[in-house]
Records
---
Amino acid sequence: KSKGNVIAPQKIFDTLGADILRLWAASTDYSGELTISDEILKRVVESYRRIRNTLRFLLANIADFDPQKHTLPVEKWLEIDRYALALARSLQDAIAADYARYEFHLIVQRLQTFCSEDMGGFYLDILKDRLYTAGENSAARRSAQNALYHITHSLVRLIAPILSFTAEEAWSVLCGKEDDSVFAGEWHEFPELKNKDPFSGWEQYGNLLEVWSSIRTIRNNVNKQLEEARTAGLIGSALAAEVDVSVAGNDYEVLARLGDDLRFVFITSRATVHRATAEAGQHIDVSASLHDKCERCWHYRADVGADTQYPTLCGRCVSNLSGSGEARKYA
């Protein structure tokens, strides 16, 4: 302090807000030396924005969700929604244990990974198509909102001891009661399953996590190939691409069962899986779609314009707008 190499807490309060200082303190391993600087605070601000933006997305997309009217049994959710719920429950269990051990820096690390990789980098990225193009009251959209509702309730509680002001702000939006407090409750209670199946029972969630972990690994490889195709000028965006994935063994079974939903996982206009030999290993081919672009969902599909009443839309969007709506099971 005598050397002047300190940053006054009040300065951080005034310029960045109290939650930034709280997040810095929580993200630092107090068993070692504590360091702070403008550069460190800049990284803390980036971490905070990632968490806050995740909450904003979650809250925005459950704004019209009424749990009294729109709650669905977990067995009727799409599988990726059950997977996201499994991730959220696993996160809550781990963070609750971290709080009990006062390992706050581990909590911040877990929150960062969950918001940036599990949510923003995977689940929410895939979910946007369903949230924005499915029928307003369709089972596909309500399934997504059911999962988001529980994820939001859990996440707000998890950040509350560290990001207290942000949590209270989010809680007032979530519950609509200004006099209520997030600190008045306990950890979120997740829904139970009544009719358990091999991929969704709570006692089988290790299996569900394992299955989707394999899918995510393959998806990461697909994304690398898509990026190379984009750099080479073959495609402008992932939705302009069609993907053929050749995989062997259990990976083939895991992908093949998704059917047409696989393209939504890869966020491409078409995705086809082929069985490969163990010797050949995994192979990914990316090609530019030759079909027209649907102006509503932006997918390039052969049936764009098939309905003369909607000459610029694909069959899926026509069904979602004026028909029975698309049927999805996995993603």
---
Amino acid sequence: FAEGIMMCYFGSWAVWRPGNGRFDVDDIDPQLCTHLVFGFAGLTNVTWEIEVLDTWNELCEDWGRCAFNRFTALKEQNPNLKTLIAVGGWSEGSVDYSVMAADPVKRKTFIDSSIALTLAHDFDGFDMDWEYPANRGGAPQDKENFITLMQEMKVALDAHGLMLTCAVSMGKGTIDTAYDIPAMNQVFDYINLMAYDFHGAWETFTHHNAPLYAHPDDEGDAIPFNVDFGVNYWIENGASPEKLTLGIGTYGRCYTLDNSHITGYYAPAGNPGHQGPYTRTPGVLGYNEICEYQQADPGSWTTVVDPVMNEPYTYFLGNNIWCGYDDAASVAIKADYAKNKGLAGTMVWSLETDDFLGLCGRKFDLIKTMVEAFDGGIVFTTPE
């Protein structure tokens, strides 16, 4: 790992998934990533402290499963590994963070409790995933208050030699309202670009979860909905490339086609794709689910790499599901892109939807491919 950062998020709720989808701390390969990020802790609007969201899984008290401690103990198997605790995420929303960030007393309560939790479980740092300041019910002044909160957090973390990172939006409208980029560039060690969820079943047509470049038919507000635009926009507005990690998704966004004869980009699709057995969320399939489906019935799944796009899509006319996702070839292109842009490395959401069991190839093939492409050599040669 001499060269690139590999920032890997862990969605800790995957421990409750059935069958081959179940993924726990012990399923993480400690040699895979430079940084492991535990998703997620939250914020309680009762006391304004950091909140453990799944106490029985994450803590040791009351015969709990000790996930935090087991997660940071992965460092024993890789002395160079850094572990971080992430706070926020999509489900936590924005409103409580907005209220907390506006009040110096609430900020101090949140920061003090966050430092205590980080130290108690031997994390190496703190990852702020407020989604998003000044959006989703937040207030316009969040942009400024987010910086104040993070400056105060940085002082507290620095006293203990701990890292501060964040995960951020790649949507132009969100960036413009949420982020004072030059100030963020000063305060964060790394800024993780969530370069996915550009399109999905909230729209009425098929498109890719994470297009590297615009599709020729993109127009109007949709023209910036791609990875390249977002990376350039962050840099042009004051982010140092060497602080940015390029987020790559190990999942697809899926639709139900309206018409089985119209199957390309911008095909009419009024509904989300059927939920998968593990992620159990309409409109989303993990790469592990997609590759298992394709392997189980290879003759019925059609996979296409449109020459105008870097990423594949796949569809199955048995139930008209259509998914735009990333495979080994497309994540290699994205990691190479990140390298050529001078970024710090890559980030992945998330460990538990890669092919971690190796049912379709080598274990964690997408993450290994990212590292190999960014670092420019075969890294993972150990037999499995």
